[in-house]
Amino acid sequence: MEVILKILWLVIICLLSGCQTGFYKGPPSDHFDGKTFYNPDEKGKKRNGNYDLVNLWISVLQNQWPASLPEISYPLLPANYPDGAMVTFINHSTVLIQSKKINILIDPIYSYRASPFQWIGPARHREPGLSFDRLPTVDLVLISHNHYDHMDLGTIKKLQQKYHPQFIVPLGNKVFLERNGVKQVTELDWWQSVNVKETKISLLPAHHDSQRWLYDLNKTLWGSFGVEISGRKIYFAGDTGYFGHFKEIRKKWGTPQLAFLPIGAYEPRSLAKPYHLNPSDAVRAHLDLGSHRSIGIHWGTFQLGAEDFNQPVNDLALARKKYGLTEKQFFVIREGLPFYIDK
């Protein structure tokens, strides 16, 4: 039965339909040709996203995580500064940012599976560190791109029903959210900004892609976020490979006090390298940004790569040593534990 389900999941990947986010119409740019978005260094390059996805899942299925993961030993955190912005890593890439004036939720996923279906697809191996019912009033939701582990429709509908928050998304994603009942949606292109409750939100570049079904590869934009809140700058990388955009972000947007950088879903490297940082790449991104501190995200919840569940943490330790960083400069944090940001 297990083998049959695996085969069925691979077939579903190839046959998905009716799940697209929509198609964007707008003027061409250095990352949009009038029909399709692209990473600037990949202009004119043709990809078979469905072929890559099938090969990725074959690799994942050959190295499955245990159903129940053992507890991880977390480091002692740097000193907290409870006079300004506070962040909570909920798990996977879901992050809560709070000040006295606003509560921001980024890439929220509370569903059991990161999938268009809740009966098959990548399953949750860890519960959220902060349950949905314990969330504060959510004023603003940021979504970095349309992959199922970042744009989770089940969670979006629950947030809309309970809090009616404002959503900020990259170009092309607005129509999908509005079609699913979201009322307040703002679309941004790279380097565009909007102010919400004295907090400045900027959509910044990322080196990634977008797709929710068979025929919508890169029809919507992806990105990272810069959040300027209570005198602090917080950077959220979304999903990204290592590229020169980190140095560009530092030059144009500034140096963050805290960066959330993905450290998981990086194997097999032949497929993942252009679009997912490994821990060594994440440390290089930390240095390029000049971030005071960085927290590793996008690991240990959904198995989206062929690496072992604890390999990102182990590889991060090796990368810190290689580049001369301490555990207080780039660390992983326990899910649900609030962390205050110093200036």
UniProtKB/TrEMBL annotation:
One of its GO terms (cellular component) is cytoplasm. Residues 103-299 form the Metallo-beta-lactamase domain. SUPFAM superfamilies: Metallo-hydrolase/oxidoreductase (SSF56281). It comes from the Bacteria. InterPro entries: Metallo-B-lactamas (IPR001279), RibonucZ/Hydroxyglut_hydro (IPR036866). Signal peptide: none annotated. PROSITE patterns: PROKAR_LIPOPROTEIN. This is Metallo-beta-lactamase domain-containing protein. It comes from Legionella quinlivanii.
